[in-house]
Amino acid sequence: MKRIEIIQNVLEANETVASRNQQLLDKHRVFAINIMSAPGAGKTSLILQTLTRLKGNLNTAIIEGDVASIVDAEKVQSKATAVVQINTGNMPESCSLIAAMIESALKDLPLDDIDLLLIENVGNLICPSEFTLGEHRRVVISSLPEGDDKPTKYPLIFVDADVVIINKMDLFPHVDFDITAFHRSVKGLNPKANVFEVSCKTGEGMEKWYSWVLEQVKTNATRL
Amino acid sequence: MHELGVTENIVNIALTKAGEAQANKVIRINLVVGELSGFVPDCIQFYFDSLSKDTITQGAILHFELVPTQLCCRNCSTIFQPKDTLWSCPKCQGQSIEIFKGRELYIESMEVE
């Protein structure tokens, strides 16, 4: 019997593909944002509003990740430069997008014609936090009806977020959501995260998000 | 739910390393899994039983070393294990907290023959 020292990260295979994805995106000057949340928090709504508002400024492509259906891809089709739908139902990771799925989706996108790539992850607060995709920034959406305890219950996804969006602010008078507690939890886990309070439905607070996106794309283009 | 891909990686790494060591059989794979990682040892075991079939890893014991969550207070640098889901420093009650340990998922070593 022989003992072999290994010390190898099991997720390394995913991380290798993710960094290859990022190199490809950088080569074509595409800025990628991974958008994550629980089902129904407003990922598609955020994407739709962002597409509408930034249409004149940026050419945006979308990768939609869902267990099944092309519902989301159909919704964003007319507004985006290009859309790829990934259905994870029959894949080893059905609960999250992984870097290999993005690698194959990137082959179907006209990368030279795109400034911004918004990746809508599968609705889930647990699994997507384990798999990087090659994105430049990570965004987590929490919506008021979900309750203010999500950062406490699902810390990892908040720890790694660059932006936390609190969506459905139009429902504030109707739900018991302690927004001070929510801000405190996020700040405790991740002091650097930008937190935006918005309503994708009414447009409230969205300008800050749009400015952040434009600023990030601009800064990234300068870097390359 | 997402352990299938991860277990494929474990089997692939084990086969590669066993090949490099010119081993005929993998007896034991020692894995380190953090409490905060979203990976469930029972699920990894379940997929492993099927993925390892007809390879030299078939029948290998998967040993899981579980790493408890350890947090670090950004305010006073105290390292502590959280008592509940509310992460606050036992020394200064600060709530600005960094994860120190608990996100691991790696193969530490293997025994082969």
The strands making up the biggest β-sheet of chain B line up spatially as 2-1-6
Q: What's the architecture of the domain at 2-68 and 101-112 in chain B, going by CATH? A: 2-Layer Sandwich
H and E order of chain B: HEHEEEEE
User: Under the CATH scheme, which class of the domain at 2-138 and 206-223 in chain A?
Assistant: Alpha Beta
Q: Tell me the fraction of residues in β-strands of chain A, as a range.
A: 15-25%
Contiguous uncertain segments of 5+ residues of chain A: none
**Biggest sheet features of chain B:** 3 strands, mixed
**What is the average per-residue confidence, as pLDDT of chain A, rounded to a whole number?**
95
Instruction: Indicate the mean pLDDT of chain B.
Output: 95
Instruction: Look at the helices and sheets of chain B and give the structural class.
Output: alpha+beta
Whole-number radius of gyration of chain B? 18 Å
Structural class of chain A: alpha/beta
Cα separation of the termini of chain A: 51 Å
**What's the total helix number of chain A?**
8
Proportion of beta-strand residues of chain B: 25-35%
Tell me the distance between the termini of chain B.
Answer: 32 Å
Elements of chain A, N to C (H/E): EHEHEHEHEEHHEHEH
Q: List how many beta strands of chain A DSSP finds.
A: 8
Strand line-up of the largest beta sheet of chain A: 4-3-5-2-6-7-8
Question: Largest interface, counted with CB-CB under 8 A?
Answer: A-B, 36 and 38 residues
